[in-house]
Amino acid sequence: MRHQFLLMLMLVGLLLITVACADAPPARVMASQMPAVKRTARKATPTLPAIHVTPAPVARVPAGLVNTLFYHGTENRKEVALSFDDGPDITYTPQILSILSQFNLRATFFNIGQHVLAYPQITRAVYAAGHTIGNHSWNHPLLTALRPLQVLWEMQYTNQVIQQTIGIKPTLMRPPYGAIDRMVHIQIENAGLLPILWNVDSEDWKRQGVTTIVQTTLRETQNGSIILMHDGGGDRSQTVAALPRIIQALEQRGYTIVPMQQLLDHHADAPSNPAATPTVQRTTRLTGD
């Protein structure tokens, strides 16, 4: 009888333990018992490859042009400068380089920092061909809508990426959309840059046809003009097609197409500098630059 009573107590106790375990929350699994999880490390910032290029002339800011907005060169010389914004572009920049090489011309390319980081080999090709690389901000914002430190960051970070890519820091800068006021101008200068605007907009960004681009450019061009075109920022096939016609027409009209540096130097040497205006409140109309 005693044996049966003990057996009964054991069965009841076992039943109570089973019920208690069923109602209790699941026990924590020890970390050592968890299956191994493959961790993906955060991607590091891309390391730019070593720089192997033929040095091109470094743009200099003549003393007479410090604290100025530069729109065009001297009207005393029949010379103009070509400039291209929003590159580098993997498709259109090489085509424009090829055309400029055929005519043995040098131009200025105002590059967007994140595009330089994406296509460093194209940026090096532009520089190796003897063209000037300028700063066009990091990601093409409306600088006048930013705070001063944000504007300075746009300038300095782009400077850094360009310098890592071609080995020299740019000295020329074109604000996106040509939008500039006193605050933006101050931050551009704080970054060690000279703002370069334009007085001939080819309006290639409108993509209204090759003939329209050519006619617009020729109609507006005069002595000392800085001509604005684009090698990036969208479909630039019309720009590529228009460029040879523009070059040939300008030369037929007696213009000499010169590097931006030559336009700067000749303007600084001129008796008067009407384009070297004081820093004033100014914002151009928004375009596709």
TrEMBL record:
It comes from the Bacteria. Residues 274-289 have a biased composition (Polar residues). Gene3D superfamilies: Glycoside hydrolase/deacetylase. The keyword tRNA processing does not apply. GO terms for cellular component: membrane. Residues 1-22 form the signal peptide. Residues 267-289 are annotated as: Disordered. GO terms for molecular function: hydrolase activity, acting on carbon-nitrogen (but not peptide) bonds; metal ion binding. Keywords: Hydrolase, Metal-binding, Signal. PANTHER family: CHITIN DEACETYLASE 1-RELATED (PTHR10587:SF133), GLYCOSYL TRANSFERASE-RELATED (PTHR10587). This is NodB homology domain-containing protein.
